[in-house]
Amino acid sequence: xxxxxxxxxxxxxxxxxxxxxxxxxxxxxxxxxxxxxxxxxxxxxxxxxxxxxxxxxxxxxxxxxxxxxxxxxxxxxxxxxxxxxxxxxxxxxxxxxxxxxxxxxxxxxxxxxxxxxxx
Length: 119
Known about the structure:
It is a single chain. The protein is of the alpha+beta class. The chain contains three helices and nine strands; from the N terminus they run ββαββββββααβ. It has helices at about 20-25, 95-100, 105-115; strands at about 1-5, 15-20, 35, 45-50, 55-60, 60-65, 75-80, 80-85, 115-119. The strands form two sheets. A seven-stranded antiparallel sheet has the order 2-1-3-4-5-6-9, covered by helices on one side. It has a two-stranded antiparallel sheet with strand order 7-8. It is globular, with a radius of gyration of 13 Å.
């Protein structure tokens, strides 16, 4: 399994990593964003921050947020180096983001293991 990893601090950079490298690179130091499945029908994107992660899934031409609570109020975060508004329930524990990345190759597993909400 190969992932795309992008960082935005102190500058934007991109590289391809493997599943074996993922745990060692899944640290919030440079606000990394991980992608799996770019160019395919299903795409998973995980952003990692100091206190939370966000997880987005493109499936059947629809984007979804992984959620750990039903909180719908919008909160402002920095996402990919830019300001973004996301539902508060889409701010998930960092370990949830890593667990989703490990299942990125198994979309049916992702859909049953986690709770999703349409973006």
